[in-house]
Structure formats: structure tokens, C-alpha cells
Amino acid sequence: MATSSDRLPPTGAPRALSGLLPFLRPYRAQLALAFVFLLLAAAATLAFPMALRALIDGGLAPGERGAAALALRGHFLALFGVAIMLGLFSSARFYMVSWLGERVTADLRNAVYAHVLRQSPQFFETTQSGEVLSRLTTDTTLVQTVVGSSLSMGLRNAVVGTGAVAMLVWTNPRIMAVVLLMLVLVVLPAMWIGRRVRRLSRASQDRVADSSAIAAEVLNAVPVVQSFTAEQREATRFAEATQAAFTTAVRRSRARALLVAFIIIANAALLLWGLYQGTQAVLAGSMSAGHLGETVLYVGLLAGAAAVLGEVYGDVLRAAGATERLMELLASQSPVASPAAPRTAPASRAGVEVVFDRVDFHYPSRPAQAALANFSLHLRPGETVALVGASGAGKTTVFQLLQRFYDVDPAPRTADAEAGRPGIRLDGIDLRDWALEDLRQRIGTVPQDAVIFSASALDNIRYGRPGASEAEVHAAARDAFAHDFLSALPQGYDTFLGERGVRLSGGQRQRIAIARAMLKNPPLLLLDEATSALDAESERMVQAALDSALQHHAGQRTTLVIAHRLATVQNADRIVVLEHGRVVEEGTHLELLARGQVYARLAALQFAA
């Protein structure tokens, strides 16, 4: 089972957060406003010790009792004013950064999801859907925590801490010069511990993604798991993955706890030494009590800032690993993409012409085994052609290449230049020169395993034409023999069909898929044999729907059919027999029977049965 940790080194560093800059850039105004409020809140915090010094040295100084009371009241009002500013600016900062965190996270999730949807099937041969879901949920939540909270707290405490250091150096230059020199000795070990936290944060997130991948895979196959009584086995496998994630998380938490403890204790020791020197100065008469109180508050602010920064640094490291994973996902490039200057053909009125010209193709996951070898096939506009052959002959590969889920293998350098480049052409244009959206708009597909979305029957049928009217949907359903059973549902066409259509039978799902393709009404229709896994009654209904699809606009649509049961394609204009990715026979049903070769042997086996 391939996992992200198998492919990528766990290198998440704080600089990986720079990948979020494109998502922050559209909100520069909000970011600037949040920073202004942050600075104002930090300034209000730093003003507190100065107000306290003025209170102690001015409001409590010996003098006339009435004047002293008035002065004391003024100092307390000044302190309360500072508190009001601190509260207002802090709440404004909190709102702005929370808004930014939510907005950036939503944009990031949308970007990752939209990017993944555009990846070719090759991407999903090596990346499990559960891992992608983990990145969309767990990783983006970590990013949200940092952007919407931790980063703001870190910046605020960095400003407060820097301001406190500046004030301490200004008011106590000799003592703080020694303290700052010794702080350098604290930074070096903290950086070493931080690197270990960084590695373990990335590894922990990878283990969580592994467990998510297992869960997604098994939950999509619960009936199979239960039929093989594998519930306990799968629960154990998930528990082992969860335990691995827990173990790695504990190691990360232990390293992070060590980092936080080291920063707090080391800073506290140094700052307490500075305070001790201050008290000695008060006793010696070289410092006032108000000055000492101011120093105590600034030391407290600096110590608190150091503690918070230790916590925030751990969050930043985790978010850096998450951001790195998300940026890797966004950086992945699909090998199949629209050309910079796509070509388009005029709208087809009587189907399309399809030409496979000396096509070779190997799946990326099986580079040594050819799926198609020197494959050539010509479909004329309006023609119905059936592909038959044993499993693995290349029939499904033809469908996937036609929809350009993959690109054909590049021609060898020794290829004949005069013969033109091998490839697939639709209406005379190489598929690689089509815009993907234009190409796939011209193709309708009915897969063997019908896909039903968690939506109503109406929305499922018009999935390919979201703007179709209800009358058009009903007409397509009638042509696909689906109208009667859909009308009988509790809410008719508005009935919610459940995840993957669990409320429908296999035959009903297939007829909805056929109605969906007929509503789209494409010039090229691809039908993967949809009856091989159905009971006799369902097969009869689905076959009638397929026959309706073939006859509807007969001669005005090019149709390519994969046939596992030869009886379903006897009336095709042409039958093409594949073996090991090559065309070995083609002709009508009667012509191929008369030749007595591969097709005749397949027919004898099936019709005799």
C-alpha cells in the first residue's frame, strides 16, 4: 500500500508556510488591518508597565492628601483607559485573524479539491482517496489553526516580547545586556529540538493519512467485507494503523513538550537573574520602587511571550508539515492536459469519425505489459461497432484512451515520418489537440458499474446536462425504461437515492446511467456491457434500455459497445475482436461466424451454454 511517507521525505520546515502566500495575497487589506490591530494591542500591553510606574512613583509619593488622591484617581483612570484600548484592539485583532483563517482554509480546500478532480487516473494509481481526504480535512484544519489563531498569537507575543526587551534594555541597560547575551545560548538547543519536532510532525500526519486511506477503502466495500466475515480483521488493520499514528504522535508530543519546557525554564532562569539584580539596585537606592515594578511587569511580559512562542512554534511546525503536503498535492501535474492552443471541429450532426492509428499503450503502473499494440480501428460517423474479446484484451483501454484519461505512448524515433504520428483522431483532429472539456462534451458513457451520486433521481439523470428541463429528463428516462420505477418512488424523481444508489437495484442503477447518457445526447456513445452482473429480469430491462439507446437517433450517433455477451451485439454494424491488445478479426456477426475463427469459437461457447 503506497503512502505519502513512502514517496516523500518528512522535511516540513517553517518556510513551507510560504506556500500559503498566494492564498493570503487576495486579502492584503484584511491582513494589513489585522496587523495594525495587532500592533495597537501590543502597544497597549506595553503601556501598562509605564502606567504602573507612574502610579507608584507619582500617585503614591508623599505629599498633600487631597492632591495625592486626585493624582491617584488620574493614574487609575489612565490604567483603565489602557485596559479599554487593549480589549478593543485585541477583540478586533481576534476577529480579523479568525476571518482570515476561515477564508484561507476554505480557499485552500477548494483549490486542492478542484486540482485533484483534474488529475488523470494515473494519479489515483499511486494516491489513495483516503489520503486525499486526510489532506482536505486534517491538514487544512492544522493550517486554519495557525493562520486563524497561532500565527496571530505568535506575532503578537513576538512584538510584545521584542518591545519588553527594548524597554528593559532602555531602562536597565547593564543588566539586560548580560541577559540578552545569555539568551543566545538558549536559542541553539531550541533549534536542535525544533528540527526533531518538525520531522515527527510530518511523520505523524502521514500516519493519520494512512489510517484515513484504510477507512475510506473499507467503508466503500462494507458488503464485501461482511460477506467474507472480515469485520474483525479490517478493524484490527485499522487499529494497527491508528496505533502507529498514536505512537508517532506521542513521540512528537514528547519532543514538543521538551522544547516548551526548555524554553520556559531557560528564559525564566535568565529573567529571574535579571530581576534579582534589579532588587539589589532598589536596596542600594539606585532604582525607584516604581522602576522595579515596571521592570517586573516587562519581565513577566517577556517570560509570557517566550512561553507562548514555544507553544506557537510547535503549532507552526505541524502546520508547516501540513502545508508542505498540501503544496505537494497542488504541485502535482496531470500528464493529460488541454493544449495551449486547442483545435475544435464543427458540431457533429451524424455522429463523429474516430480513427485509432497504430496506437501503442502501456499503463503507467504496468510499463512492461502492453495494453494495446499497434492497434488500428476506424469508426465511421453514425456507425455502431462492438468490441469483443476475453478479459484483458484491451476493450476498456480503448474507452479510456478515447476519453483521454491517458495519452497513447509516444512514437519511437524510428517511426516513419511520412506516415504521420500514431494516435487517435476524432473528426480528423488528434485527441491531444482537443481541449479536454470540448472532447469529453462530445462523448457519453454508460459504464458497466453505474455510478449514482448522493442526490435525487432528477439530479442524477441530468448530471451531464445540469440545465435540462424536467420534461427532457422524463423523456430520457422513458427511453431508458426508467420512468415507471422512478415515478413509483416515494417522492418520484425528487427521491434521494442514497450514497452510491444503495436504495436501488443493480438494474435500476444501470437504467439511470443509460438515461443520463441519452439526455446528454452526445455524438459519440460508449457503452460498456451493463448486463453481465444482473439477474435475468434486470438484464431484460437493461438490455431493452440499451437497445433503445442504440436505436434512438440511429445513424446520427457513433456508438462503440463493449460486449461480454455476444447475443447483445448481433445487430451491430461491425464487430471487432481483440486479443492481447490487437485486432484479430472484424466483420458482421454472420461474417465472423462463417470464418470459424476466434469469434466463432466464443460464440459457440456462449450460445451452446
Question: Care to describe what's here?
Answer:
The chain is α/β, with parallel strands linked by helices and 609 residues long. The protein has a domain at 17-331: ABC transporter transmembrane region fold (Up-down Bundle). It is built from 19 helices and ten strands. The strands form two sheets. It has a six-stranded mixed beta sheet with strand order 6-7-8-3-9-10, with helices on both faces. The longest helix is centred in the middle third of the chain and has 54 residues, at 231-284.
Q: Could you list some keywords that capture this structure?
A:
4-stranded antiparallel sheet, 19 helices, alpha/beta, 609 residues, disordered N terminus, elongated, single chain, 6-stranded mixed sheet, ABC transporter transmembrane region fold
